[in-house]
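re: the backbone from monday

yeah here it is again, tokenized this time
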């Protein structure tokens, strides 16, 4: 028994660095991202007394004197300028007009030695919709960012409704991301499947050469490969020079800063993820099946469609899922090669995280993308397990 315990303890100690690595570089960032997506303490941090005074308010009657006194006390005690700015931005996003209202009210409250009457500062303090926005924002947990990530919001009654068409484009960009990923997946399948068939058909140094051509790009930085395509696809690049030399075009073709360039560059980068799964399935298929189909009278195309393709569809599906999962999270390639209408959801996440410091929206969009990726990965794992069972 002691020997077994010591062996188990030794195994756990060997795995401890792996567990620590996963905890610090995978689990902790994911938990932080998810907490940012549903956390909303910008208003509660500045208005704690207002939160207690507004308990039980029916949201239809005018605000109670206790609520007014509480918000005056909270604003008078607020000394963190950045936190106050976060509160004002949060409230103004929920109800337009809060930026000027809060600016006027904070100045009046700070300058007054007593508790001023809010209605005398601005009559909008008597309107319930402004207080509804405050009460709704006082909860430390919210689904506001998650709903906004797919262009949804809650109306005055609390029901989920679509945002106005001109207020957000997250859903459009998300659909564009899936569409570009689907185009790249189709392009990889159209190129990668014949290439994998050729790899499986040859042997010896020829197979090793074809395999090296697939693996070598993986050892090159993604940024370097994208920069190379930036040079190749430009108006004076290699492709346009070749087309003009062959007199196929009268002038340079626009291959950069558009959807075509993005698909070409991403297809080159992600092609190995299609070739390798398909090749691993094709190499396990007996080579005498196609000659047997031919001996029974099947033409090459019919033999391919009825014999080889059904047997290799699992590898094709696995490769398609790998390519699609990788493509939906791409950032560098669309940012360098694509135009403004070709930016994917990762660019929007980067903007919210670094451009506007809106970590809640960045986390919500990342959580939506993560959910889609996990669902696709579950399908990929099921296909891989099915392949293992069949083998």
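seq for it, each position gets an aa:
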């Amino acid at each position: 028994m002691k020997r077994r315990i010591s062996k188990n303890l030794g195994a756990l100690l060997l795995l401890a660095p792996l567990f620590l690595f996963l905890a610090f570089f995978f689990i902790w960032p994911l938990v932080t991202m998810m907490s940012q997506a549903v956390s909303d303490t910008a208003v509660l941090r500045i208005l704690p007394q207002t939160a207690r005074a507004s308990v039980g308010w029916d949201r239809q009657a005018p605000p109670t004197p206790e609520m007014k006194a509480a918000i005056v006390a909270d604003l008078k005690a607020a000394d963190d300028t950045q936190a106050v700015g976060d509160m004002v931005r949060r409230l103004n996003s929920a109800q337009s007009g809060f930026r000027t209202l809060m600016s006027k009210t904070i100045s009046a409250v700070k300058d007054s030695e007593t508790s001023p009457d809010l209605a005398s500062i601005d009559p909008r303090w008597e309107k319930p919709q402004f207080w509804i926005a405050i009460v709704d924002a006082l909860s430390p947990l919210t689904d506001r960012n998650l709903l906004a990530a797919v262009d949804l919001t809650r109306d005055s009654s609390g029901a989920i409704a679509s945002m106005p068409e001109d207020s957000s484009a997250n859903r459009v960009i998300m659909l564009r991301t899936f569409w570009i990923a689907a185009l790249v997946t189709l392009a990889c399948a159209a190129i990668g499947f014949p290439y994998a068939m050729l790899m499986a058909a040859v042997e010896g140094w020829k197979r090793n050469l074809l395999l090296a051509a697939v693996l070598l790009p993986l050892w090159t930085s993604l940024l370097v490969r994208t920069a190379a395509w930036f040079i190749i696809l430009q108006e004076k690049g290699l492709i346009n020079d070749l087309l003009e030399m062959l007199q196929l075009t009268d002038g340079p073709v626009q291959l950069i800063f558009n959807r075509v360039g993005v698909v070409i560059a991403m297809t080159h980068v992600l092609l190995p993820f299609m070739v390798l799964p398909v090749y691993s399935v094709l190499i396990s298929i007996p080579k005498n099946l196609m000659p047997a189909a031919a001996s029974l009278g099947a033409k090459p195309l019919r033999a391919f469609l009825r014999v080889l393709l059904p047997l290799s569809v699992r590898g094709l599906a696995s490769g398609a899922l790998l390519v699609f999962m990788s493509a939906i999270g791409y950032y560098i390639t669309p940012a360098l090669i694509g135009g403004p209408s070709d930016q994917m959801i990762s660019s929007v996440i980067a903007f919210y995280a670094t451009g506007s410091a809106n970590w809640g929206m960045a986390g919500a969009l990342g959580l939506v993308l993560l959910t889609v990726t996990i669902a696709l990965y579950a399908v990929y794992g099921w296909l891989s397990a099915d392949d293992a069972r069949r083998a």
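The mean pLDDT is 85. Strands lie at 152-154, 160-162.
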